Amino acid sequence: xxxxxxxxxxxxxxxxxxxxxxxxxxxxxxxxxxxxxxxxxxxxxxxxxxxxxxxxxxxxxxxxxxxxxxxxxxxxxxxxxxxxxxxxxxxxxxxxxxxxxxxxxxxxxxxxxxxxxxxxxxxxxxxx
Length: 128
What we know:
By secondary structure, the protein is mainly α.
């Protein structure tokens, strides 16, 4: 049983790291986009709004990628839980699970934040 628990611990550490990366990306996205929007509002120039628009799309894509990877490792974790101790080989390759980035995009933890940021950029665009 010790072998199985150690394998699950390895996978759980990866899941935690992916989750932390996603959280940091959200923080960076909100901070950076808010700062640029404040600067764009003071300068009264629509050209500055292209930067947060592009940044939002990039952060959205990166965040969805990390959530996709996290879901793949969760699937691997669930598979390992059901395996018997004698077949544990400490594999951490989760690419065999068919979870796409589009599955991650459908998650409210991804699209809700970025739709709100894009809406804010749209409001700023119409007011500048």
